[in-house]
Amino acid sequence: MQISDKAVVTIDYTLTNDAGEVIDSSSGSEPLAYLHGTGSIIPGLENQLAGKSAGDNLKVRVEPAEGYGEYHESMIQTIDRAMFEGVDELAVGMEFHAQAQDGSMQVVRIAAIDGDNVTIDGNHPLAGVPLNFDVTVVEVREASDEELSHGHVHGPDGHHH
Ligand SMILES: [Zn+2]
């Protein structure tokens, strides 16, 4: 069966950046199962998987716009340490949930600390990074009615939540 909307797709994948460094991989853990056509994986990869079948291997390059988005300088701000009321120790790399100006929640990461000046970065860690996927399709099957109504994949033993 070919991959199309509402198929449950299982893939093995390795994700590298342009320097060849492995960013993420299913190797050594379970393959990734997802419900195709629901936007549960990044669009640039989902689009390329359409029409593929079990056993197919593909190498997909995903530009940031189809991946984790462009890097926006405007999402970097320097704020006063006092804004982190109630946090004892601040360190580069710490992540916080913050409310964006449009009311949505976003994750911001501390990018730098200089005295009382704390630089926060609201970009996704992979924003602006071209992604190179090496993907093997392990299995393609029909989704169950229950999976379709939930909008996600259930494990081999059925419901886990
Ligand atoms: Zn469910």
From TrEMBL:
It holds the Pfam family FKBP_C. GO terms for biological process: protein refolding. Keywords: Chaperone, Cytoplasm, Isomerase, Rotamase. Its main location: cytoplasm. It catalyses: [protein]-peptidylproline (omega=180) = [protein]-peptidylproline (omega=0). Its EC number is 5.2.1.8. It is found in: Cytoplasm. GO terms for molecular function: peptidyl-prolyl cis-trans isomerase activity. Gene3D superfamilies: 3.10.50.40. It comes from the Bacteria. InterPro entries: PPIase_dom_sf, PPIase_FKBP_dom. Residues 6-70 form the PPIase FKBP-type domain. GO terms for cellular component: cytoplasm. PANTHER family: FKBP-TYPE PEPTIDYL-PROLYL CIS-TRANS ISOMERASE SLYD (PTHR47861). Also involved in hydrogenase metallocenter assembly, probably by participating in the nickel insertion step. This function in hydrogenase biosynthesis requires chaperone activity and the presence of the metal-binding domain, but not PPIase activity. Belongs to the FKBP-type PPIase family. This is Peptidyl-prolyl cis-trans isomerase.
